[in-house]
Predict the 3D structure of the following.
Amino acid sequence: MSRSRLLLLVVLGVALCGPAALASKPRHKRRVTLAFPSPAQVAAAKRYAGSRAGIVSFTVVDSRGKRYSFGGDRQFVSASVVKAMLMTSFLDMKAVEHEPLSSTDRFELHAMITLSDNTAADEIYYQVGDGHLYNLARRLGMRHFSVHGYWANAELTTNDQALLMENLSQAIFPHYYAYARSLLSSVVSWESWGIPEVARSHGWKVFFKGGWRGTDRGQLIHQVARLERRGQVVVICVLTDGDSSSSYGQETIRGIAQKLLR
């Protein structure tokens, strides 16, 4: 075949396989993953929170990592919610000191998280102290955390607690991460109202801690949670005070979760 004839065939081939051929190839649409909860769901949760009696704050971190809050920098007395920080600080202290967990350590951590046992929390706090809690708060970038002399009197915000739940794998040393998750996902059924009650019905795995106590305003009911489902992570933290009863505060948290997770 002559060189000129070969060149002509190449030119014809390019012409035949040009734009028309490209146009005939199937186009693959890029899959768009929407953020969850949606901005509309967050707005509905804010309207609901604003309609409730007492003082209500919440922070949600959606599946893309965007943060929304309703009074997210308002400080509340922590009650038992701070036990998640106590656990994290204690495990980090043990890891830094290269000291394995004793059977007593495991017993107290299990009682403190899954049963919200205050005596166990006292024992953990006496070893951790305010210093380790402040170190954890600084490491995570918490801006409004404070504690002086006793764990139950710590003050915190939903924005700060969302940092803990969102960055749980960075907050806890890798050696103890699976153990910490097992505790936070094994809270007893009678304390699993609110966020876990709603989230589990929608197929989410829930890692959480709640808190409750009386105050001069009424009842204080809190819950902070990390939700995981099919590669998605959502964080919901709700703090309330001035509730007329424990059941009213629990219903407030449940209602916010329903608006966000419907």
Summary: The domain at 53-261 is CATH 3.40.710.10 (Beta-lactamase). Residues 118-140 form the longest helix (23 residues).
